[in-house]
């Protein structure tokens, strides 16, 4: 019993920690996007100075730790299959760090010159050469590991040989990491080094600033409600994450066969799972609460967020605030209707209210966006209106009503509104991911590994460890959420704000009727498909698998597109117009120099 | 003088009927009404700027904000790591040039403080000690201070100096301090400043009394 409570607490800490930390990161991402779109440098001034010895330690320590762990035999896999998995992983990581370090080193050499003969040799090739080499090495390692697996399954190696070589490769990886860490540490300049982390420290600086600012309450304000507003605005957006599944169940073996989950059974996760994912032992869902009314709970709680904004506007004793609060209330209620109706079609198709079941359906058939593309557009619009962000930020439209409902808030209370808004972006993108983008699943990834099949023909088959699958799923979910949060934030820098009457017209006369039409068509479609013959069902199944294939190709295309972008040459042109420019040209341009004074 | 011809098209001929220009109403078809194509176009535009600039920042390909300031991309000068070079004849902080032996070139003639319209230069002249070669020949500044807050950087002191002892070619502007006292620059501080190329000696070569190159009168060869 205590174990269950502890596990639930751990999940809550994970989810809340994710939301709060990444709301700060989202603030940074917001500023960074605006800067990059408007050709500015953006947030990069916040800095923490650390002595170089500390940074040297951070660079060198992980390698020594991994090497020591491998030497001591920690993480010694109990089964030879796991040892083989670990060997493959160590090899991939070794290759990754090798090419990554070479790319960075070659880039540094090209920029700042070589320090010794080794660096001269590295600098003979452009960084991209190492990148291509690394990609080729990754493919070779994959083929090599698969060959090893086949050889092992046909009884080619003894278990002892597998353990020893797995240990050796892990040790090699640790040694390489340690060596490159020590080399990087030696290259560090002496003295203090400023750490900026690409400007993410601005989030911390902002939070500290807000905590220490004056907490101003207007003299005639309702003190209690004024304090209550931000709490009510913040609470529901955190609570809705309770029903969102961020991974499939993690299954632990029932070692002593007494059906009671004990502490030491945490050390025995199931090695392999069946494809349907049914757990024989103790199952720990990667979800805080698996409610049978899942999505209804979510809508019910999320809509109470309005009250926070409305109360804040009312309690501030300011007419602009009151207008903002009223705008927030009416806008959110209007879009709540459209939002609920737009997912009705999906509920008909999934025929469940549990979010976990919805994700399972999408994994078995097709992602929600392929089934209900129109609903996705409507849901995205409604969800963005719910988060009160541009282009739906009339409640705080600063050109009209100064700052709307949080005009009279300052210090940490304002910080709570702001954090709440960004957490809301994260939770609404978690909802979008769960409903339309397959939640924590990846195409063709099942509980027992990768199975790519079209129709009944199996194209690719790769069995994977249960823990590895679960870790991949959890990472997938959070990456998808971050991607969609990033995407939602992007609208802010693209679209201008609606006028208030346009907003209402859009909600009531466009979204709502469209949602109803979508619902009716979907209902007819669902009945038609239910009554169609098995041949049609087979066609649908193949179509679903094809949609998975499209997604998989898109996922593989992402890194390729990234590399293509990285290799784009820069096209800069020099205009020498003023005397200052002439002088800059003579001085070799505006060069970074040491800080003076 | 020719009469204006009647086939001018930019004015309405007298008596001609008024023909209004017909402007087409904006198309409000499905493409416009659904917002989606316009949103996609807008996102494509912002995202292309975002990715291009992010890539150039990450890969250290940010272009020179002065030289390539007119081209597409980030033009911010990250002061103080990056600085726009001041023009060649920029009048910066004052420096006092030195002689070969390291003493100040200044002879404490008070020309600069006299010329100074802001009256920010204060000099206390002193005699070289008895027995020094320069004793009785010229003096040196015991105290030479400039209040950089009062200074208007007009350069009159440089013009006034007969011996090239004060220059404003450091290429630096006064740095911020937190009290007024810190802006009062003393003799030794100004002697430690260098020109842009790191030079500290005077360019007006000095012929000390007693040198064979010394052209004029000095203590030994007076009258």
Helix-strand layout with pairing:
The complex is a heterodimer of chains A (597) and B (223).
Chain A: H1 2-37, E1 48-51, H2 52-72, H3 80-112, H4 117-123, H5 127-153, H6 159-187, E2 192-195, H7 201-212, H8 223-239, E3 247-252, E4 282-286, H9 294-303, H10 305-315, H11 319-342, H12 344-350, H13 355-364, H14 368-371, H15 373-386, H16 398-401, H17 411-436, E5 445-446, E6 449-454, E7 457-463, H18 466-492, H19 500-531, H20 534-566, H21 579-586
Antiparallel strand pairs in A: 1-2, 3-4, 5-6, 6-7
Chain B: H1 30-33, H2 36-58, E1 95-96, H3 111-115, E2 121-127, E3 139-147, H4 156-160, E4 166-167, E5 184-185, H5 187-192
Q: Can you offer a commentary on this structure?
A:
The complex is a heterodimer of chains A (597) and B (223). Chain A has 21 helices and 7 strands. In chain A, strand 6 and strand 7 form a beta hairpin. In chain A, the strands form 3 sheets. A 3-stranded antiparallel β-sheet of chain A has the order 5-6-7. Chain A has a two-stranded antiparallel ribbon with strand order 1-2. In chain A, strands 3-4 form a two-stranded antiparallel ribbon. With 597 residues, chain A is mostly helical. Chain B has 223 residues and is an alpha+beta fold. Chain B has 5 helices and 5 strands; from the N terminus they run ααβαββαββα. Chain B has helices spanning 30-33, 36-58, 111-115, 156-160, 187-192, and strands at residues 95-96, 121-127, 139-147, 166-167, 184-185.
């Amino acid at each position: 019993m205590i174990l269950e409570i502890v596990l639930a607490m751990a999940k809550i800490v994970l989810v809340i920690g994710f939301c709060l930390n990444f709301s700060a990161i989202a603030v940074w991402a917001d500023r960074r996007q605006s800067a990059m779109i408007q050709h500015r440098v953006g947030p990069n001034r916040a800095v923490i100075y650390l002595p170089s010895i500390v940074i040297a330690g951070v660079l060198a320590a992980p390698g020594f730790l991994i090497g020591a762990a491998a030497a001591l035999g920690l993480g010694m896999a109990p089964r030879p299959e796991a040892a083989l998995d670990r060997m493959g992983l160590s090899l991939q990581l070794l290759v990754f760090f090798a090419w990554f370090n070479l790319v960075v080193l070659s880039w540094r050499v090209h920029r700042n010159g070589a320090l010794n003969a080794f660096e001269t040799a590295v600098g003979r090739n452009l960084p991209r050469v190492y990148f291509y080499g690394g990609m080729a090495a990754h493919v070779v390692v994959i083929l090599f590991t698969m060959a090893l697996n086949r050889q092992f399954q046909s009884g080619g190696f003894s278990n002892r040989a597998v353990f020893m070589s797995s240990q050796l490769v892990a040790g090699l990886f640790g040694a390489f990491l340690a060596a490159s860490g020590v080399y990087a540490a030696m290259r560090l300049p002496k003295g203090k080094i400023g750490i900026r982390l690409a400007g993410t420290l601005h989030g911390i600086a902002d939070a500290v600033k807000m905590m220490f600012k004056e907490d101003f309450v207007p003299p005639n304000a309702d003190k209690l409600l004024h304090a209550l507003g931000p709490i009510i605005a913040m609470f529901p957006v955190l609570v809705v994450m309770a029903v969102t599944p961020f991974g499939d169940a993690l299954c632990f073996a029932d070692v002593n066969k007494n059906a009671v989950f004990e502490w030491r059974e945490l050390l025995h996760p199931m090695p392999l799972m069946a494809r349907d994912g049914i757990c024989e032992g103790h199952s720990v869902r990667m979800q805080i609460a698996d409610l049978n009314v899942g999505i209804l709970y979510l809508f019910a709680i999320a809509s109470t967020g309005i009250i926070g904004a409305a109360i804040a506007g009312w309690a501030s004793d300011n007419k602009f605030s009151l207008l903002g609060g009223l705008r927030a209330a009416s806008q959110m209620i209007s879009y709540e209707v459209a939002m609920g109706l737009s997912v009705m079609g999906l509920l008909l198709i999934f025929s469940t209210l549990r979010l976990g079941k919805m994700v399972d359906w999408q994994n078995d058939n097709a992602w929600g966006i392929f089934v209900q593309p129109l609903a996705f557009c409507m849901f995205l619009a409604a969800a963005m209106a719910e988060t009160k962000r541009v282009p739906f930020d009339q409640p705080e439209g600063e050109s009209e009503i100064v700052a709307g409902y949080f005009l009279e808030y300052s210090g940490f209370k304002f910080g709570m509104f702001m954090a709440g808004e960004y957490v809301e972006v994260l939770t609404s993108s978690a909802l979008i991911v769960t409903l339309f983008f397959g939640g924590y699943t990846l195409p063709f990834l099942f509980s027992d590994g990768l199975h790519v099949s079209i129709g009944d023909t199996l194209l690719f088959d790769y069995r994977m460890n249960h823990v590895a699958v679960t870790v991949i799923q959890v990472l997938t979910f959070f990456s998808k959420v971050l991607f969609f949060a990033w995407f939602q934030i992007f609208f802010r820098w693209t679209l201008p704000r609606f006028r208030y009457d346009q907003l209402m017209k859009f909600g009531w006369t466009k979204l709502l009727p469209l949602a109803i039409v979508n619902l009716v068509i979907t209902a007819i479609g669902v009945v038609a498909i239910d009554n169609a013959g098995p041949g049609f069902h087979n066609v649908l199944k193949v179509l679903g698998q094809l949609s998975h294939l499209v997604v998989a190709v898109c996922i593989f295309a992402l890194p390729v597109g990234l590399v293509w972008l990285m290799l784009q040459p820069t096209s800069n042109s020099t205009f020498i117009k003023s005397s200052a420019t002439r002088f800059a040209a003579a001085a070799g341009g505006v060069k970074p120099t040491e800080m003076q004074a | 003088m020719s009469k204006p011809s009647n086939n001018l098209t930019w004015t309405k001929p007298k008596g001609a009927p008024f023909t209004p220009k017909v402007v087409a109403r904006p198309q409000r078809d499905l493409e416009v009404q659904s917002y989606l194509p316009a949103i996609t176009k807008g996102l494509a535009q912002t995202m292309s700027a975002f990715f291009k600039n992010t890539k150039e920042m990450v890969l250290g390909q940010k272009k020179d904000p002065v030289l390539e300031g007119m081209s597409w991309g980030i033009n911010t000068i990250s002061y103080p790591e990056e600085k726009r070079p001041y023009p060649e004849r920029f009048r910066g902080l004052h420096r006092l040039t030195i002689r070969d032996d390291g003493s100040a070139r200044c002879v404490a003639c008070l020309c600069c403080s006299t010329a100074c319209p802001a009256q920010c230069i204060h000099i206390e002249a002193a005699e070289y000690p008895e027995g020094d070669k320069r004793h009785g020949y010229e003096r040196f500044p015991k105290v030479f201070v400039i209040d950089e807050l009062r200074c208007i950087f007009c350069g009159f002191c440089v013009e006034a100096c007969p011996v090239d002892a004060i220059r404003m070619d450091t290429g630096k502007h006064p740095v911020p301090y937190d009290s007024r006292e810190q802006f009062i620059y003393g003799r030794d501080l100004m002697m430690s400043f260098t020109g842009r190329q790191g030079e500290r000696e005077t360019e007006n070569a000095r012929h000390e009394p007693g040198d064979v190159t010394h052209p004029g009168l000095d203590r030994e060869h007076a009258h």
